[in-house]
Specification:
By secondary structure, the chain is mainly α. The protein has a single domain, classed as Mitochondrial carrier domain (Mitochondrial carrier fold, Alpha/alpha barrel). 72% of the residues lie in helices and 0% in strands. It contains eleven helices and no strands. The chain is globular and about 60 Å long. This is Mitochondrial folate transporter/carrier. It is found in: Membrane. Keywords: Membrane, Repeat, Transmembrane, Transmembrane helix, Transport. It is a multi-pass membrane protein.
């Protein structure tokens, strides 16, 4: 029954954070592939990107790719939180420190979830990167996007960027490990059990810290994944993305979009864990 509560909490957190933060996610994706190519609009800053998108497409332009994100994020976070708490007891036999155990369990849970929902993340990236304003767009929506990718590229198309995406599982693991470490430390300070619900202020601080530290540690994978999934360019592999990016744009190219990512982490991280903890508490009231 407790795993059901974890799924409810995680799904609720993923849904709310996506609704609030999607425009920032879109800006991050577009900036990540901002490679001076004539195939796409070029942005000199996030403000410039926002202005150009709004001028060309209106407010709807900032919500391109929302449908797969609304579907993927609740499923991903619901399964991640549920899987994490289901798997963790089975690792107790290993002589690991609690922090390393949290990291290992998070990697297993995150990688498993990514294998299930990777097609939705590919569709999100493709829809976010539709710049065309004149004439029909390549993808008419989520179902058309998934069907066309399968028809043109096969199952492999649904899993473009999967390998660098596994680094995202490591990020989730790092974030969750940091959050749990801080939460356990705070519970020890208060002299209460580790599963005790903390104050909103504690959750606010710990979730923001865990998000920012986790994201900063492995950010380049997001650039590599976005460029592999982009339908305007072609790369042979993740290594090819790294080599070409370094050659044409330098080390800075691997960190494009990081500022928006970090700005997004604060509201997203706070929403994620505050909603997760409160939704889980409400679910506990249901018999």
């Amino acid at each position: 029954m407790s795993s059901y509560k974890d799924f409810i909490g995680g799904s609720s957190a993923g849904l709310v954070s996506t609704l609030v933060c999607h425009p920032m996610d879109l800006l991050k994706i577009r900036y990540s592939v901002n490679d001076n190519s004539k195939l796409r609009p070029q942005y000199s800053s996030y403000l410039d990107a926002t202005r150009k998108i709004f001028r060309a497409e209106g407010i709807r332009g900032l919500y391109q790719g929302l449908s797969p994100n609304l579907l993927a994020s609740p499923i991903a976070w619901g399964l991640f939180f549920q899987g994490y708490n289901l798997i963790r007891p089975h690792f107790n036999f290993l002589d690991f420190s609690p922090s390393f155990q949290n990291l290992t369990v998070g990697c297993v849970a995150g990688g498993s979830v990514l294998a299930i929902i990777s097609p939705l993340f590919v569709a999100k990236t493709r829809l976010c990167l539709q710049y065309e304003t004149d004439g029909p767009k390549k993808y008419r929506g989520l179902t058309h996007c998934l069907a066309k990718i399968y028809r043109d590229e096969g199952v492999r198309g649904w899993y473009k960027g999967f390998v660098p995406g596994l680094w995202g599982s490591l990020y989730n693991s790092i974030q969750f490990a940091i959050y749990n470490h801080l939460k356990a430390w705070r519970c020890r300070q208060l002299g209460v059990e580790n599963d005790t619900k903390l104050s909103t202020t504690d959750i606010f601080v710990f979730s923001a810290a865990s998000k920012c530290l986790g994201k900063a540690s492995i950010y380049p994978y997001q650039v590599v994944r976005a460029r592999l999934q982009d339908h305007h360019t072609h790369y042979k592999s993740a290594t090819d993305v790294i080599v070409q990016t370094l050659r044409k744009e330098g080390i800075y190219g691997l960190y494009k979009g990081m500022l928006m990512t970090m700005l997004r982490q604060l509201p997203n991280g706070i929403i994620m864990f505050v909603v997760y903890e409160h939704a889980k508490s409400l679910a506990l009231l249901v018999p």
